[in-house]
Amino acid sequence: MPLSDLQIQALGRDAMQRAQAGDFAGAEPLFAQLVAERPNSGQALHLLGQVRLKLGRYGEARAPLERAAKFLPREFTAQVNYAGCLTVLGEHEAALAALERAATLKPGDSVINHNRGRALEELGRLEEAERAFDEALSIDHRLMPSLIARAGLLEARGDWIGALADLDMALTNRPDDAHLKLRRGELLLRQGDWMRGLPDYEARLDIPGAVYAPALPRWQGEPVERLLIYPEQLDIESDAAKRDTLMLARGVEAVVQCGETLAVWLDGPTIRRGESLEGFTAAAALRSLPYLLDWSPDAPPPPPALQDRDAGASHDPLIGDDTWDTHLAAARGIATTIRLPAKPDWLWGRQEGPSPWYRSLELVRQSISSTPSSS
After folding, report:
1. DSSP-derived secondary structure for 304-319
2. What number is the average pLDDT over the span 316-323?
3. Closest by CA position to 267, among listed 202, 332, 216, 324
4. Ranges in the chain annotated CATH 1.25.40.10
5. Is the full-model pTM beyond 0.85?
6. Is the pLDDT score of 264 beyond 60?
7. Which CATH number describes the domain made up of 5-205?
């Protein structure tokens, strides 16, 4: 039996009260009932779509938001919310169309221009995306999302000075933002600026869940009785963790936390992950050692000592990628060539040819279009 007007009004009030109190799960079925009773009500459709967005049910939010945008053609927020839903669902062309409609209702809106930039970037229309972010920032020069997004586009096309300026501006507004510090640090390090980049790079340790860390005080370079150094990757047997261990477990007297694969090679004290940390004073991530010990990218400390497991064996020169087994060959003194990708790890610096990281190592850089040959 259809509800009376009074019942519909009571239903709407109850749904709004729940939504305003943050009870979106409780409000959603009430708004759905309201839409069932009034299927052509743009406001009811818009509210139903909004609570489903709040609940992360983007696929279910699409239909009511699309209908709301049609029934409310002059309602700015209806067009913007529909566009936002489409963006999350990956329907970027449709999102652009909705944003264009919103722009006619509210010209010169920085948020609309930012969202246009996001959609254009997803569609690979990078020059148009950059112009959209430029326009957003001309309206609001401190708009954080646009600063961050434009920094990524500028860096991608090689304008690292412009990218750095955007990140600097973003950090004036949020000076303690660890994600922004990390992005700036990585940008500087990729340009070879260790002096400014390494302090910012330490911000990764302040992002909850981003890296592994043992339950020990963080070492700051002070004298300690027993120091643990460790790879920060969550999987200690991953290629990245083993590679970092071979490349960075140097320059300090410490116990190395590593997996079984490397423990048989390292000629020094090691400990497995999960073993007791009793007796350790502090711990340092391997990727923090260049900062803590003030390494020079042109003259890092000697690599870790390895056990001589195949004395007298002859070894042919090796050509490989930037993987742990190639690092192992270089650390063992085998003549090794590492083919760096187009965007290599910042630890390699910008040099090519002989590398200071291993005595027998040569570096070869690949262009973006090159295809590696087999080893």
Report:
1. PPB--SSTT-----EE
2. 94
3. 332
4. 5-205
5. no
6. yes
7. 1.25.40.10
